[in-house]
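Sequence in, structure out. Go.
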Amino acid sequence: MINHIPHELTLGDVYFSPLLPVVIFAFFATVITTIIFNKFRLVRFIYAPPYVFLSIMLIYIIVIDKFWIKF
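Output:
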């Protein structure tokens, strides 16, 4: 029985966790989201912006992991 779930990603002879591209994509998506929040001045309603940044990034990690890159 062949398992189609990726366990490791390879780049040459270096092995990476499959979570690494998910975290990178989530970081860039969060940066774009915060730029949009700053453009529409929604940041003034946020009490602690670093915590909101981390929580948005966590939401993106969960969504990308669940629906796009399936482990």
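Check: The beta strands are 9-11, 14-16. The radius of gyration is 16 Å.
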